[in-house]
Every structure is written in structure tokens, then in C-alpha cells.
Structure prediction request, 428 residues.
Amino acid sequence: MTTLDFGPVVIDRHYTPQDAATQPYPLLPLTVPPGTRGLTVTQEVTPDSATVDLGLADAAGVRGWSGGARRAFTVTPTDATPGYQPGALRAGIAVLLGLYHIPPEGADVRVTVHFHPEGSLRWYRGDLHAHTWHSDAHGRPATLAAAARDRGLDFVAVADHNTVTHHAHLHDPILLPAQEVTTYRGHFVAHGRAPLLEFRLTTPAQVQEVLRRAAKDRLLTVLAHPSPTCPSCDWAWGFEDQFDAFEVWNGPWLTLNWIAREKWLTLLDRGHRVPPVGGSDRHQAAGWPDPTPPELQVGSPTTWIRAASAYGGDLYAGILAGRTCVSEQPAGPLIDLSSHGGQLHYDVSGPPGGTFTVYAGRDVLFECPFEGPLRGEVPVRAAAYHRAEVTIPTPPEHVALARGRWPDHVTDAGAARSVRALSGVVWP
Ligand SMILES: [Zn+2]
Prediction:
């Protein structure tokens, strides 16, 4: 799967000091393919001593400007890089350059334009929870972006703890702005670009106030890793039903994720419509390439989102609409579950292995081995919700490993089976 069908279009230009003197603001007109809803522009300039500013214009005038501060920007109908206006792409759209400093030998500028196709929703894969050296990891945002791309991801949310300093450094369009509000009684991730949320929370009233603030800033909030993997990791504030989504799966499945899943299922049983998401919680290493085993890297687990594009607002809309799936790795398995006309449709793809189970509430509705691509339908039952999983029996040595680390929390029932993929929820 590729993120962008349309393009990319590459435009190469050479500018001399004379060009800068006669027309310092050249326009590179774009031919927008029919059915385009947004675009991403990236720019490379050589030599380093040249400064060429970046912007966007259309028939109505300047549409956005980032000067020399950014080398990439995105504009979609619902979202845009700061400094750019979101909305439809209008007539006369053109990349706007500023020839601020052109050295005597001239400057080469390469502009790459990715057009985002409109219309049908599709699955994008990514990671909604990762860290850089802006908090307690060693890798830079650019290293995390390289790692995510290497794993075939379409997006990765940078959710550094109690800071937003990284937001000014997310130049690669694969990186999404987020922050992990990390309190001494649990964490949540707020997705989107906004000022720092208060994390020095000591009373439930303050927690409620910060959740109100996040809603006002139009941030998408995700309750993070609600399980006792560390003394302050488990969420102990209440208000579990007030988050937009639930991180059912954080890191390897055996890091007590069945406890988080049980809390999530309890919310579903009570009638709350909370979509499941996952996150590797990868604390990116400084070096590249990354020698870490794949199961501990960014993208393990992978969150799939059916969305109009792989950019912020569209992904958040996909999550809010419940179009998610979480799988052990970027290759899948992907469970696409939907219902029409009293039938529940399933489409399971990716590396085979294990058992595919469809649930109506807590009851097993259907079960079969996952030995290759699966496609079919079963009649829906009068249940509050339907969902599905691919699971395998947990190897005994893995159970022993988890038991050694969390002797008080690893139960036979909890650790008996490991999840390879977990579908989104289908509500009646
Ligand atoms: Zn955390």
C-alpha cells in the first residue's frame, strides 16, 4: 500500500543571483489531477549556503508561507501545516518560492508535490504513540521518521511527555504532532497541534479541566496504556469514558495488554462507543539504522485507520468514526469488519497464523483458523457491539518472561493467548 497515488510531481529549477534580482518570488504553477483533495509539498535546496523560502499561492493570492522555517507543508480541506490555510485547492494553485539568498554559483531547487486522492476511504497504517529526544528517548524526530518509513508506515504520532517543543521540528510529513500528558496517576495522549496541556494534575477536578481544554483545542484524546506496567502508568483518575479513543494495545501484547483490553471491553459493555487504537510507545534510539528487534520498534503494534488521507484531521476523523484496527506489525494481519443489511462482513488479510474469532458482545459468534486471506459474512446478532480478533496460543517461554517481570499481574487466563490483530468495533 502506498500513501499517495497521485504523483509525486517533481519540479527542478536553477536560480541565479540575477533571477533573484529580477523576480525574487517565482511561482511554480501546478496542474492538479481531477479528484484531488489536498497536497503535500517538500523542498530541497543546494548548496546549503542558499536560502529559498517556501509558500503556496492561488488566484486569490498567498495561501500560506513558511519562509525558510520549513521544508515541507500539507494542505487538506480539514487541516493544514501552521502558516497555511486549510480548505479546497482553488484555481491557479502554485508553489511560491522566495529567493532570499542565492550564492554567486546559483542554487538548485527541487520541489516535490504529492497530491492526495479524494473519494474512497482506504486503510493507512501507522503508529499513534512514539517518543523522541524532546522527552525521554535519544532519537531525533528525523530518525523516528526514517524508522517509520523503513517499516512501511504512513504516519507516526510524536507524543513526547509533557512538552510540545518537538512540534516545531516535525518537518517530515509522516510525523504527526501529539503530546503525552504524563501525570503521577496515569497518562493520556492528545493528538493535534496545540499549546502544552497542564500535566501537574493533583485533583480529579483538574483532570476534568484539562480534558475540557483538550476538547476546546480540538485535540483527539487517547487513554494510554491503562495497565499496571509501571507504578504510575495505570490510569487511576477515572473519567475513562471521556476519551475519544482507548489504547487497548501498547508495545508487545504480553506487556499486560489483556488488562487494558478488559477495561476497554467493560466500557463497551456499558454502552460507551470508544474505538480501539494501539501504539508502540517506541522511545526512538539515536543511531541509524536501528538494530532493535522489529517487535520493539515503531509500528509494533500498528494502528490501521480507514481515512481520506494519512494527514492529521482525516486520520482523527477516521478514528472518531471507529474505522480502526490494531495489528502486531505493519504487515498485518488487517481485520476489516463492517455491517450491511443484517450481515457482518469480514475481510482478513496479512501473514496467516492463529484463529480468527468474531464476537457479538462477549460471546463468540464465529471462529475459524486463519490460514490465508479470509472473506465472508455472518448474520449479526442482537448485541451491543461486534468485533473480531486473530489470536495464537502464547508460547510458554513468553509467559514465563512476562511472569518474571510482573509476577503479581500475569494470570494464566490473561496470558494464555496473544493477540495478533484486533478489529475496530461495529455498533448497530
Ligand atoms: Zn505513557
